Amino acid sequence: MNVSRLMDRRLLPLIGPLLLFGLWELVISAKWIKPVLLPPPGETLAYLWGAVTSGAILPDLLSTLWRTLAAFGIAVLIGVPLGVLLGSSELAYRSVEFVIDFFRSTPSSALIPLFMLIFGITDINKIAIASFGAMLIVLFNSAYGVMNAKKTRVMAAQIMGVSRWHVFKDVMLMESLAQTFVGLRSAVSMALVIVIVAEMFIGSETGLGHRIIDAQQVFNVKDMYTSILITGALGYLLNLAFLLVEKKLIHWSGKA
């Protein structure tokens, strides 16, 4: 692969954002939406740059990031061991499968009133409901990763007389990592979504969700779109970080 083709591949991720902002500019130019409701992309990006360089948005960004990472950390600490434990015995997983799928299929936002009754209007509430939603995703993927470990490798280890513990630890767990990381990437995105929703509708003084809803209520549309763009960028960067870690740790994924 020559240098020009390599550079072309590195520039591919820029096509999507350019198309998005091009469409945004077209909508404004064609007057399909009034500029008072959707300001031009140049003005919005200038406002975003000012909010970032001045540090005005930093407290809200850090609050949301802290809540997201705290919720995700709790989800991993509970979801991975429990998922691996259940996945190692298919009968055990099938016995609780309905409960897992029921709550996994229930929108976490529908559970906000329940968590408010239990934890009150506090940061603990936001972290708890986000960690609950993320934990179910981690648990599901970890369990299925263990259950769907390549049977040929498991059988080969058993035929060679490897103990059940070492088959589980060295074969099934390693085989399950790819599926587990899929769950981790989905879970961190889910944790961010739930935190943003919780910041919007549960009493909060900081956070990007709080900033978005406040800007909407006072009709500060530039600040609203800026906060939305920052939220999207945060989600993208968290997902990208996990992709890089996954490629580093699970370099054998997909290989025979």
What's this entry about, in short?
By secondary structure, this protein is mainly α. It has helices spanning 3-11, 15-29, 41-53, 58-87, 90-105, 112-119, 123-147, 151-159, 164-201, 208-217, 221-249. The two termini are 25 Å apart.
General description of the model:
This protein is mainly alpha-helical. The chain has two domains: 3-38; 61-249, Orthogonal Bundle (MetI-like fold). Helix content is 79%, strand content 0%. It is built from eleven helices and no strands. Helix 3 packs across helix 11 (221-249) and helix 4 (58-87) packs antiparallel against helix 9. The radius of gyration is 22 Å and the shape is globular. The two termini are 25 Å apart. The mean pLDDT is 83.
Q: Could you outline the blueprint of secondary structure elements for this entry?
A:
Elements: H1 3-11, H2 15-29, H3 41-53, H4 58-87, H5 90-105, H6 112-119, H7 123-147, H8 151-159, H9 164-201, H10 208-217, H11 221-249
